[in-house]
Structures are given as C-alpha cells and as structure tokens.
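Supplementary Data S3. Sequence and structure tokens for construct A.
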Amino acid sequence: MTTPDLFGDLDPGRRTRLGPDAWVLRGFALPRMDALLPALAGIEAISPFRHMKTPGGFVMSAALSNCGALGWTSDRRGYRYSPIDPESGLPWPPIPEAFARLAREAAAAAGFEDFAPDACLINRYLPGARMSLHQDRNERDFGAPIVSVSLGMSAVFLFGGPARSDKAVRVPLHHGDVAVWGGTDRLRYHGILPLGERPHPLLGARRINLTFRKAG
C-alpha cells in the first residue's frame, strides 16, 4: 500500500491514494458548497442531530442525523438501518440532489461508476469528539463503495486494515475533501481521532461528515 502524504496535501485536485481501491479526493466538494450547506441546514431542521447510544449503553461522542430511504441508527438492540427516524416517527428526509450528485461524481472519480446511494449518515463532531475504529458492515451489499465528505474543521482520519489490530495510517482530512473506498478496501477498519480546537472560518467549531452508502 502506498503511504499517504500526510501533510501539505491541501491543493484541490490532488489525490491521496490509501489503498488499491481507496482515495482521498482533495477539495473535491469545494465548488459545491453553495448547494451543500443550505441542503444540510434543511435536513437538520427536519431531523436534528442527536447522540445515540451503542448496544453497550455508551453515548456516542459524535452526534448524528440521516437522510435517504434508510438511516443508520444505534441503541440497546444493536446497529441497523431503518426507514424511520426514531425521534420523530417519520421517514428520514430524502437525499438532496446536491448531495446525490456529489456522491455519484466522487465515486466515479475514484473508479466506481453508477453509485446510487440510498443512505447518507451525517455525523457532527465538536472539539474532543471522535470515532473509534470500526467497519461499515451493516449494509446488505458490500459491492458499492463508501463516499465520505468532510466539511468544516479538519480531522485526522484513521485508515486501517481488514482486522482491528492492523496498523492504521493517519490521514488529515480538510474542508471539502472526499474519501472514497470500496472493492478490496471496502471492509477496512477506519475512524477519526479526537477533534482539535481550530474552528473553521465558515462552519465554526464543528466538523460535519456526510457518509453515503448503498444500504438496502
């Protein structure tokens, strides 16, 4: 595996290769911000961010919401996808066209044509929030890639191997970066180190992560 360039990788249009089928597309989402941010606000107004509990009873440090036909949820009964927001009892908001277009184009740029996500998990990280190493394996079909969009504060992405014990590389992700992984890299363990204290000039002291998946 090629070791990623961890620093000085801020130029839009550059790519960081994380594995045979895994890339970070630097600044890929930047030209789309005028459409993405209002769409995000619209989702939050319908399905506000909330801190869910893990099956073990721990409160997740990142708050979350969803949009799409299916939304990822967690509680004492386990991790799963549901068509219904458990707080409102209503369907999750649909994926905005600006979101869907970005996901399709980023997937295609990374070599995955015809990606049609039906779920978008939206995580909100405040300073100190983190995401432990995990696999995205609640989806029915692992043939589709994961498309992960970073907005706001920079974070350090951990990208490991097929086993939790495998060494993970540390990859800075910045506002507008899009990570895509699938194929042989689809079940890699990944996570986010605790978020730092440097507010973003546009989004302030928060990081928003849009994670597009084919769940159903």
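Construct B, processed identically:
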Amino acid sequence: MHRAPVVLERAADREAVPDDVWVELRRAARELGFSQIGVADVDLASAEPGLLAWLQQGLHGSMLYMERHGLRRARPAELVPGTVRVITARMDYLPRATSDGWQAIAFERLHRPTEATVSLYARGRDYHKVMRARLQKLADGLAERIGPFGHRVFTDSAPVLEVELASRSGLGWRGKHTLALSREAGSMFFLGEIYVDLALPLTPASEAHCGSCRACIDVCPTQAIVSERRLDARRCISYLTIEHDGPIPEEFRAPIGNRIYGCDDCQLVCPWNKYAQRASLPDFDARDAFDAPSLLQLWAWNEDEFLRRTEGSAIRRIGFERWRRNLAVALGNAWRETGDAALSRALSEAREAASALVREHVDWALAQRDTPALEPGS
C-alpha cells in the first residue's frame, strides 16, 4: 500500500479539481474493474453516537482493535490528518460463472450437510490484495493528471466506517443487515476508499429502500441482527468462523450447519440481490477447492495442503487450527443429520493429533449423533 506523508496537504492550499478530471477518474475506475466510485465528506459526526453505543454494549466481541480505534473510525481527518474528501469505490464480486438462480442454489447447499459452504466472497482471490492494488493505480493515474497529492488507500484494513462513507457518497444505503445495499447491485460487492487532500466535488448520498422488509433479520440462523442495522458480532456466524479465535460457543455450533467460512444467509434472502452483478475481473472466479467441496475432502487436508490451497486467498488468514475447528463443527452437524459412519471415523482418527482447541470441537462433534437435528436456518 502506498504510504503518503502522515500529514496531507490542506485543501485550502489547492484549487478545486476540475469537473472533467472527475469524469476521467470514473472512466479509469471502470477500466480498473470498479463498478462505481463516489466522493464523501469527512464530517461523520452524526454516526459517532451509534458507533460509541455499539462498542459500549460489547457487540464487537473480541475484535479489540475496534475499541482501540474508537471514534477515529468516524473521523477520517483524525486518522489521516489533512484529509478533506474520501473517494469511495465499489467492486462486484460474484464469480463470473455464477448461474442464474444462484441465491436458491446457495440455500439448497445448506440442506446438504456433508457438503461444505464457503462464503461467496472468499472463493476467489483475497479481495484486500485485488482492491488495494487497483485503488493505488487509480490514485496514481489521478496524480499523473493533476500532479502529486496526499492520499492513503484503504481496503478493510484500517478504522474506516466503510458503509457510512459509501452511503454518503451514493454507492448504496445501509441495509437492515448492516451491509451496503445498492438498487443496481444488491450487496454482493466490496468497498474501498482513498483518503485525499483534494477538494473533489461531493456525490449525492443514497436513500434507503428496505421499506418494511425484514427478511435478513428473520433468516439469520443465530439471530445476530438484534435490531434494524444493529449486529451483535458475538452471534454472527461470519464472526465466529473468521474473527473469533477461541472455542465457538456451544449454543451456536448446531446453527452453523455446514458453513465453514463465513455466512451469506442475510444476503441470499435479500430481494435486492436479484440485481447483484457478476465480477468483471477473473480474480474472484471460484477456486475448485472452494466452489463445491465436501467436508471430508477438506478435513483430509494437512497444514501444508491448507497453506498451498489458500495461497492468495482471504481464507488463509484464519490459520489451519481455526479451519479445523470450523470443519469439526460442520462434521458434527453432518454426523447428527446423516449418521454416516465415515464422518465419525474421520473425526475419531484425527482426535489424538489435534490441538486442544480442535479436540474440544471434535469431542462435541462425536457426541452429536444422539442430539436432535436442526433444520438449516432454524
């Protein structure tokens, strides 16, 4: 990532950027694979009370970096002194080969307990790498046109209120599931930002279009969406399988089903995702290993194979131990649902060599045959 000077130039020291430069910037963004860009102001004061309340209630779980950053997330000019505008960017991530009816297909997979489900966004290349490089190219192109300027590029890599900035710049609105939603693209996209010291013209904010719909709230397997636009991360399957590094609380293990990395349920059920766009880049094409794997196939991997298969993938960052922990939970759920002896045999054979964390989940999994089955999504 480009490291700009800590203090950016003051906007007052610059002339406003001509409109034709913004037109060129949008064209360049499209060529780089971005679906849309916008410009937001840095005054996010109205978002601070909600952020503070969320933190004070402990809804961020063990993501302690959220506490450390505190209100800096809502203060771009404090995070990067001199920032006066934020260029926001949207990049669609549905794999190019995604079939029509993909939402129904994904839900059907949740009803096949011996098959593993990986969140759609993580089936291809790590989006952090893809977006960060292309945001930097966008900034470099702008510098070639107008001359050097202060900037910092972010892709889910710093205390940034991404959805708030996206909604204020017209990329979408905050859905009831807390994700950004667009009338043209649903929610299946990544967000990125460039903090700049340029007096770029602001783009109009988005209006919310969720209406009375609460499908995302009702479908959540762990009821993690505790109210409209308020998520309790401690209950969220994406948090539990990715961010959380300890034992998964027992009350959430059965609802996890066969989800081994992330959860898309609140997006799959969203009516706006009938407009979700396929990615323009091959980077997000699904790797064979994560497109339609079985739990036993993935359980058979050793750490070397895990590292090889996840090279350049967002999945690698959870590490082999959490990967095995997640698989053990899913295998236990499949064992309860199917009674397939191959599942219990695979778990038993791996038990002794497992770490204490994984062994705890293996023991839970082996005990599931005598536990009543749950309906997926219940």
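The chain has a mean pLDDT of 90. The chain is about 40% helix and 10% strand.
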